[in-house]
Design a protein that fits this description.
By secondary structure, this protein is an alpha+beta fold. The chain is built from 10 helices and 8 strands. The protein has helices at 2-9, 34-46, 66-85, 105-117, 149-162, 188-199, 212-227, 262-270, 304-309, 315-327; strands at 55-61, 128-132, 138-143, 174-180, 182-185, 248-255, 286-293, 296-303. The chain has a 4-stranded antiparallel beta sheet with strand order 2-3-1-4. A 4-stranded mixed beta sheet has the order 5-8-7-6. Strand 7 and strand 8 form a beta hairpin. The longest helix has 20 residues, at 66-85. The N and C termini lie far apart (65 Å). 25% of the residues are buried. Residues 11-29, 42-46, 220-232 and 333-337 have low confidence and may be disordered. GO terms for molecular function: RNA binding. One of its GO terms (biological process) is tRNA modification. Pfam families: THUMP (PF02926). Keywords: RNA-binding.
């Protein structure tokens, strides 16, 4: 009886049950086919995926309104791009051109058929490119020079604060904006690289510890730069009113990331700044914004006082202040998200 019972428990492949085990296929994402590589490269060229060195704005929006939020913020970026930098908005080629209205139906159908037969050409990357990410209520608006993400966000929020009526709102579904002026990998070395690069314009930094190979590489770079060196902009590291070194606070945000912890990131970045710059969590001169998403880390530095006055760049709250001021109610403090 014991033998028959044990046989019934065994799988069809024998006592080890190997026939029931699922065979592992693929390489767990360790490699990509040539087609996948080409697709990723085309996406990167068109600005549809995050890459090291990207600049832009992290945008949060109302739940369930992704399509509308992306469209309205893209239109807002195009408006301010022309206003601040003289960048003309892209022309939609799908819209009929002037003079096409009188064209007969047969000719228009023939044109559509020819367009369908013709091979699709990759679209050129625009100055503003929305990037979809695997997070609900969040997307990234990638920007290109001459656009300055910090200046763009600042102007949008300033105008939102001036809005006197709900009818004048330019955005209905957008919440918080977080500028990013540079991006690197979300590793210890990547965070140190991007933070050092961004903070150098605002703070006196401790010297970076380098190995022999890195020192030799730096000497070569310095020699090459000295040949065609350009005038270096003056770095302002002191408060103009008090003539004291900038105080600062570090505000990290982690999204879909489990490698680094926020406290470790704060200590890492704070360790780069010289002690003459004091930490001030209540009223800092500068706020260091750190956005970590999956494998990428973006950093920017903004004015601490104005960042708080503009509700930490939450334009939905800023627009809401207009109605509250008219009704005599005090504006609600900006939430963390």
């Amino acid at each position: 009886m014991a033998d028959s019972a044990s046989k019934r428990k065994q799988g069809p492949g024998g006592s080890d049950g190997s026939a029931l085990k699922k065979r592992k296929e693929g390489a767990a994402g360790r490699w990509k086919t040539p087609a996948q590589k080409a697709k990723h490269a085309s996406w990167a060229e068109m600005g549809k995926t995050l890459e090291v060195g990207d600049e832009g704005i992290w945008v949060t929006y109302a739940r369930g309104m992704k399509g509308k939020a992306v469209r309205e913020f893209k239109a807002l970026c195009d408006e301010y791009g022309e206003k601040l930098y003289g960048i003309k908005p892209p022309v939609d080629e799908s819209e009929p051109k002037s003079g096409d209205e009188g064209e007969d139906i047969e000719a228009s159908i023939e044109k559509e058929l020819e367009a369908m037969k013709a091979p699709k050409q990759p679209q050129p990357r625009g100055v503003f490119s929305p990037v979809s990410v695997a997070i609900e209520c969040v997307f990234f608006m990638k920007t290109m020079r001459p656009v300055d993400p910090c200046q763009l966000v600042l102007e949008i929020c300033r105008d939102a604060r001036k809005c006197e009526s709900a009818k004048e709102r330019k955005c209905k579904y957008i919440n918080r904006l977080t500028p990013v002026v540079d991006t690197d990998k979300a590793s210890e070395k990547g965070v140190q690289r991007v933070a050092r690069k961004v903070l150098a314009s605002f703070f006196s930094l401790n010297e970076e510890e380098k190995g022999e190979d890195e020192e030799e590489g730096e000497e070569v770079k310095e020699a090459e730069a000295s040949d065609g060196a350009e005038e270096v902009k003056e770095v302002v590291t002191r408060n103009a009113e008090t003539d004291a070194p900038f105080t600062y606070a570090i505000r990290p945000t982690m999204r879909n990331h489990s490698i680094l912890e926020s406290q470790a990131v704060i200590k890492m970045i704070a360790g780069m700044v010289k002690p003459e710059h004091k930490v001030n969590l209540k009223n800092p001169d500068k706020v260091i914004l750190v956005e970590i998403f999956q494998l990428f880390c973006g950093v920017s530095v903004v004015d601490g006082k104005e960042w708080e006055e503009l509700k930490r760049y939450n334009i939905n709250v800023l627009y809401g202040m207009a109605g509250e001021q008219k009704s005599g109610k005090a504006a609600k403090p900006a939430s963390e998200e």
